[in-house]
Amino acid sequence: MQTKPRFRFLPSPLHSLLLFTVWLLLNNTLAPGHLVLAAFFAITIPLLTSGMQDPHPRFHRPLLALRYVLRVLGDIVIANFEVAILVIRPSKHLNPAFVAIPLSITHDLPITLLASTVSLTPGTVSAEISEDNKWLYVHVLNLMDKDALITLIKQRYEKPLMEIFECSI
Amino acid sequence: MNLLWVVLLPLIGTLVPLFTERFGRNICAFCVALLPAWSLILVLMYAPDIFNGQAIRQTIEWIPAIGLEVSFRLDGLSLLFLLLILGIGLLVILYARYYLSLKDSMSRFYVYLMLFMAAMVGIVTSNNLIQLWMFWELTSISSFLLISFWSHKSEARKGARMALTVTGAGGLALLAGLLLIGRIVGSYDLDTVLASSDIIHAHAAYPVALILVLLGAFTKSAQFPFHFWLPHAMAAPTPVSAYLHSATMVKAGIFLMARFYPVLAGTDLWFIIVSLTGLTTLLLGAYIALFKHDLKGLLAYSTISHLGLITLLLGLNSPLAAVAAIFHIINHATFKASLFMAAGIIDHESGSRDMRQLNGLWQYMPYTATLAIVAALAMAGVPLLNGFLSKEMFFAETLNQSVLGSLSWTIPLLAVIGAAFSVAYSLRFIHDVFFNGQPVDLPKTPQEPPRYVRIPVEILVALCLLVGIFPAFVVGDLLHIASFAVLDHTVPVHNLAIWHGLNLPLLMSFMAMVGGVILYYNRRHLFEFQSHFDTTDAKHIFERTIQSLVKAAESITNTLENGSLQRYVFTLLLCTLVMGGLPLIELTQNSGTRASIPLDGVTIVCALLMIFSAVATVIWHRRRFLALIFLSVVGLIVSLTFAKFSAPDLALTQLSVEIVTIILLLLALFFLPQSSLKESSNRRLSVDLLVAGLIGCVIGTLCYAMLTTPLNTMSDFFIANSKTGGGGTNVVNVILVDFRGFDTLGEIIVLGIAALGIFKLIANMRIAIPARDDKGRAWSNDPHPMMLEVVSQSLLPLALLVSAYIFLRGHNMPGGGFIAGLITSVAIIQQYIAHGVQWIKPRVTIDYQWIIASGILIATATGLGSWLFGQAFLSTWFDYFSLPWIGKFELASAMLFDLGVYLTVVGAVMLILANLGKLTTSERLDIQENN
Amino acid sequence: MLNIAITIAAVLMCLSLMLNLWRLFKGPSRPDRILALDTMYINSIALIILFGIFSRTTLYFEAALLIAMLGFVSTAAMCKYILRGDLIE
Amino acid sequence: MLHLPILPILLPMLAAALMLLPPLSQSITRQRLFAVTIMITLVIVSVWLLLTCHQQGTQLYVLGGWQPPFGIALVADRLSALMVLLTAILGLGAQLYACAGDDKEGMYFHPLFMFQMLGVNGAFLTGDIFNLFVFFEVLLIASYALLIHGGGKQKTKANVHYVILNLVGSSIFLFALGILYGTLGTLNIQDMAMKVVSLNEQQQALTKAGGLLLLVVFGLKAALLPLHFWLPKTYAATSAPVAALFAIMTKIGVYSILRVHMTIFGQDAGALAHMAIPWLWPLALLTIVMGTIGVLASPGLRLSIANLVVVSVGTLLLAVAIQRESATSAALYYMIHSTFITGALFLIADMITKQRGKAEDRYVIARPLQNPKILGIAFFIAALTVVGMPPFSGFVSKILILQAANSMRETLWVWPILLLISLVFLVALSRAGTTIFWRAAGDNTQGKPLAPLKCIAIALLLGASPVLVIFGGPITQYTQLTAAQLHSKAPLPNSKLPIKKAKEMPTGQSHNAN
Amino acid sequence: MEVIYAFCVGLLAACGFFLVLRGRTFIVVMGLTLLSYAVNLFLFASGRLTLNGAAVLGQSAQYSDPLPQALVLTAIVIGFAMTAFLVILAMRSRADQGNDHVDGQIPVRPVSPSLLDKRNG
Amino acid sequence: MEFWVELVASILLVTGATFAFIGSLGLAKLPDFYTRLHGPTKATTLGMGCLLIASMILVTYWQGYLSVHELLITLFLLITAPVTAYMLAKTAMHHKLQILEKTTDKTLSKRAAERMTP
Ligand code: NA
Ligand code: NA
Fold first, then answer.
1. Gap from B598 CA to chain E (nearest CA, Å)
2. Pick from B422, B739, D223, E110: CA 20 to 30 A from residue B347's CA?
């Protein structure tokens, strides 16, 4: 758990980086004036909102994170095709199910990320997280093998997230 | 010297009692008397000029727009009345000093009395019609105060109100009459008016003006059928009756007729109305007076009767009759004032005014009795007393008329009958009070009153005698100049003497005497005869009339203003329908010459979406959440419409407002019923539907007609000057912050005020919080879902960045302070939704109210900045700068203005929404639904 | 070619919107309707993007961005309303 | 002072904003001192503005330096200056009264009051019809908030009606503005008056609809029959200083009718000239009748006064409908008189109400008043003024209107009605007064002295009545000049401040949305 | 296009006015919201309809009338402020009077049997 | 050049619109709420992604500079779509909406609604 920011004027550098990028994205530009503005907002906005941010586990291994993002994006594309077919086919072929997935990660942010990933990827929607943060309830559109699904989610998504946030192993 | 002072002195006199009461009653009364006395001296100083046939005038301009001048004139008639008003007024002041008991507020009494006196003086000296009317109304007002002096008594209040109503109504008629005369003559100057008798007589509106003026005079002078207020005015303290109801107020009506005698009299209409009214009043008053057991009641009806006599005389259209009328004015004032005073003394000393109780007072107060008897004899018209003289003149004049054509002989006969009754009631006054056995159950043992209270009576009775014995010497000149004024400078020959030889009038007097005595001796039969008649008191009729008026008014109001908003809105919509729809009927063709835009599929689909959703909102309006969802679809399509028709700023604004509205409605819906039963009947629904549908048709037609007509607008100016003059390429935004920045300033102020108002509404609101939802389900136990919390938190900086982006580009591209403000607010609200108030509280310590205020201040200050450069408020400034490496950039004061907008929006939205959240408490109770 | 593609896309989006509307009417439950509304928001973004491409302008980008941001808030608020009644507590 | 015309708007605006911020926001005493100072300044400024307009003619203040009709212009002519002064004095009275304690009964009284002043002054001064709408909304939202000041069921209930009706009204306002802009292509009132002449037949019909819809809107604000329903209960429910201030609210509706239907659709408007008059006549008469019936039917003093407001609106509009210069002048005089007097009456009624225990202001027997003398005198003067009895201003205004009703037809309608309502008022108010002041039971020994501020406030408003009579000459002269100005069609004067050099519009390519 | 635009405006106005005539505060608020949509579209239409003509200099060949747009913006904001106030006032009214009827009390009228059936069923 | 740009953009447009349509189709035709939830939340992300990329390409091509701000919309949708789905599922379970009969482990939804361990 990170309790104190490392730099007073840059409480969350990652956020700042994100904001910096987004500003340039928004303005479609790399003009010097906008770089200054982007830097300005990247510094001021996190300062302004720092009070509104709960502490989160520290972020590690950016490369792994990038790989994770790309993997999820790829899975989204596939998921869409699969779901598209399921939707178009008559619904009697569907095999929906509720599945409870035991969680190893504990903190809010990683759990949220995992739940989001699950929702964005093949045929599953995160429906609920148990109060003790130990179970993720998932609705599956077309369940083949329950255990395989649990393993897949834990291996493919939870593990990298755990590594990225270096938590509780 | 100044004529103005004659009026001003009594008027100033109204203030005297307020300052002198503390020095004791004697000093107070003395000081109060000083000013009218002074005024009287002034009048007397003018008297020689008047007796020389002059009229004195004084005019000051006041309100020319209504023809009102401060204008006074003193002529013979005024002089006569001034002497009566001021002279008897002084006597009444003296009398009242001893009459009023210690409980009564002396200063209050004197204030009212002086006010009244001033008003009377004003009436008789006015040389301007409007001013005359002003004083006329002042007498009504002050008499109201005087009559209701003992306001704790119900009859005093009612009597005063009745007097005020009747005389007030007459006053209004008089006003109309005077205005009409003014319009006919073209001036409100009395001199001019009095000189325009031909114009007035010839004018088509003469009868109307005459009737209106006479209504004023008759009500004031208690002429039939307006006589009924006077007896009830006897609830006033006796000094008031002595003054108002003998010498002054009731005489104001007579004065009015005398004043306008030159211009209004002389026609058949005048003749018929005035003389017949007078005659009826004379007879009625005299008849009823006989049956009154109340001493003052008797005197009141006697007054009515004598006023009728004077009116009759004035109505006869004969100069000599007018002289007689004026003479009787003087005589009646003296004997009636003294009689009232005597009655007051009797009442004061014996505790009763009921003649059934009062008997044999001669033994107890012989001196007072003597005075009263002399005065009563004057009233009866006994020779050697003043009443005899004028009554004889009256008889003579009744013989000289032809009111009723060949039936005119009845008038002298009726006059004699009236006189006989007058003798009878005078006899009753004398006999029933001072003789006729012993008193019955009097509250007090009667005794002679204090010395000073008799002085006024003595003076007046002495006058009765003096006038009665030496008429020409005492009042000859006064009567002459007064008649001189009334009769337009041509006074007929008359001879004021006790003895005119044996003639018909003398015989009539004699017959009246004898008749009166006979009547009085047979009074028992008369009383019995009278008791067969239902004597409905005018007071009850009056009160009942007023009551039923009020009842009728109540039922009308309750029917129309039934407190149902639906009806009010319906009326409003009907008006809208009529006003918007009628001009459309004149519209021969709806479509103009403007080329229309071809239809496309996406538009049709969006339109269908909007139509279905709008209709669904209406159909399901009682299932509120559902309706809300459909409503938001409509809002979404509206935004898309704006985008489609080239209004990106509008689309953005509509979208953001839409979301905030939905949040707001959801917040509120929680505290309101989720659904309601069908309340309106089918008939009502279909009527509403019809009206709403018709208005929809009107609006749609107007819209279509507008869309298809070509339009030349001033918008080119904005497009041409947006960049060069306002420094921005987004013309809409430049209009908002520059061309029409004032609108925007107003708009954010509206928002700010709304927030303050809402905060005010929320403060101390005690509202039940539903423990379950509308289907009876318990609420979820997860107030702040974790995922929502985390994601909302991380969205906040992004949203702020986007709002900064929208804000900064606003001047040149779609966006601006308002939308940016809404985005910021929504982002913060999202935190409230996700985390709850408790979580936010320690994290946001700023007062939203300050943000609103500083937003408004920044926007205003930006506007004010232009003052420094000699420019008008809200003149903008912008310029382009260039920095190394960064390059060229623009700075504009409009941005600062927009910042003000941004801050106000954020402050207002947050103040509204965040505080709604504070309504909830931790526990939720089951509430009783009241519908 | 592009215009044809835009037309096809627009037709599909219109059909989607009509389907959303159908679900909105049909329900049967409140979550169904909220879901339909949310989908409608997203389809509107698509429509705006298509419109921008069709008119060759970027003026409507912010509108799309705003729907993306605010549509979420609206949906979340409605869900919260159903769950807890009180949006802010 | 070059910026004089905008000061009546800016002063309350800045004052209100400052009162929301520390140090003023923290202490009611500071707020009171500040607010009263501002209001007195406002009175001074208004007098100054009035004198300037009177002596130097109409003042034009071009906001942002944009030449009208493109920018928003404030036009201070005799009428608007008069209305602003009227508002300032009335406002000062109401505020002084509130400072005696009523302002503590809820939040934000003083800021809201200032906002209300700002809205009213803005509505009077603006020369732009959309800006008029904006200021209408400012004053309305402020009035919504002020209306509930003090809390209580009655206020809430009345406010619900008031707000909903006005919101519908605002919608209609915007429809009307849309039509007017859609046909005339401009928003500046003077410019609209120019353009209204050259419309084709179709545009005329549309413009007429717009103009008549505006009549509905302004009629609603003014409480013209049949749109008056909201007024009596609303005014009777609200707290005294607010009700007193509201005495000006209906006048704003009348003022707007004057502006729109005399300036835009006046005698020079061609086919559209005087289009509202045929409606105004019967409606004004009916308003008077209904209001009078309401006065007679009212069970309590405040409701009576509220109905008097309705009558005063009818009377005013009747004078407006006569359409003669003298009548307009009479209407203006009447406007001044009735505004002050209804304001004063609401304050007096409040003091009476607070001393009568549970009987409140109802016409029933109750315990005697603690201060019968002062209240009695005040009520008496006010009642005389209302009835139109001398020596107070009511009679002058009554005579002015009676005299202005010149033709046979006018005389036949106006005279009987005006005189009869005077009589009804006389009956009703004498009943009211005798009941309240004289029909007392028990005693009320705890004679507390009256709050001096309240007395000053009442004296200020009531004092206007004799002043109006004493200085009747110059005042009627001013109203006559004002009426003459309203009836004549004069071009806008030049701005004293620099006008921005605008780029010429591309000639011959005037924007044509064709 | 103009026909369908005008039709929609008229329909929205009609729906809005109909709901404003109902007796419950929240429904009136919804009616006013619908009405304000109609108003805004109507006001917008006073500048006529233009395709591809956003009034941003340099972005279009021919510009739509920017003035009504600015007016509508102002109207939207003001409308929002007013709606917000009314909504909270409706809550206050409910809190003070115990029901959400616009008149503060439920009008008493005989309940028809069919209505009773509905309520029970 | 233009042809290829147009071609890619056209394909992306049609694909994107198709996915969006399928999402809406799923919303309309799938048998219970939970299955319907899958359609929009996923299909739209890809659908919107394709449309936005098409827009990026075209704008970049037309305006001559790289237009990437459309990515932002995608970013927002990716962040918010799962939360929307989560909230909706939560609501559905809270309201105990009818679950398709053949759904495996239906009872889990009750545990989930109470946020307990299975
Ligand atoms: Na998934
Ligand atoms: Na006797």
1. 6
2. B422
